[in-house]
Amino acid sequence: MRRCSVWKIAPPLILALALAFLASCAPSKVQLPGPAPASVRFGVATDVHYADIEPRGTRPYRESLAKFKEFVSVMNKEKPDFLIELGDFKDQDDKPVEAKTLSYLRRIESAYAKFKGPRYHALGNHDVDSLSKAQFLGMAGNPGVPPEWSFFRFDVRGVRFLVLDADFSVDGEPYDHGKYAWADCNVPAAELDWLRSELVASPKPVIVFLHQQLDGQGDYYVKNAAVVRAILERSGKVLAVFQGHRHEGALTKIKGIPYVTFKGMIEGSGPENNAYALVEVGLKGDITIKGFRKADSLRIGKEPS
Description:
The protein is α/β, with parallel strands linked by helices. Helix content is 25%, strand content 20%. The chain has a single domain (40-300), classed as Purple Acid Phosphatase, chain A, domain 2, CATH 3.60.21. The radius of gyration is 26 Å and the shape is globular.
């Protein structure tokens, strides 16, 4: 302990100097370590299918604009780290006209731009039903990502996020201006190699986003989903896979990895039929999903395989 002493001297100047010396002997403020890293929070919407066209069946296409604006407004109040939409962001007329299709994309992207933070896109089959990937991503890009990249990664504090693109035919050709079969969706070899390398290199736990589903087989699922799942499982780093495409939503677990399919925003008329969520990834990899409107609320986590 530092010891301080004061001399018995009366003159005012000397006394003032002594008092200043005593003040310097006061304990210094302890510098505590900074707070533990905060959890990561993000908003999710999928299957917006916005187009200024008449309703078809259960899909009131025009209403998606108001539904999506509600999502953005609520998320601006919640202040998550970022937003992501999981594909089928826009739709088109029965007989598509490119200029009109682009106008639908421009309008819904303008609503997305009202979010006060980073916002991301995963490509869905309807995003390129009569457009190219370059056209879509040129207008609805991802922050810090070159517009020609349809699959990519980004990090937020203690979590790595990988966004996949399954809009490829079985021969590896990208969907382009309607040249595709919606049930023929695949993750091509080059993207699989990229996925392996990203998982090996990642020092952080990982969450995967994509539009089509990985947790089964059939028309709605990625054709080589089993190959993709094996890569995810071998890494031991994947906390969850978040996907869209099937508008009714679902939750499955395969070898300890949760596969969450979010409900489609497009389904049903009126704000009460909206669907979107706020996801929080805790420091221990626990995941809480707060569903809004008809979206489900869940607590999930990666189990040991």
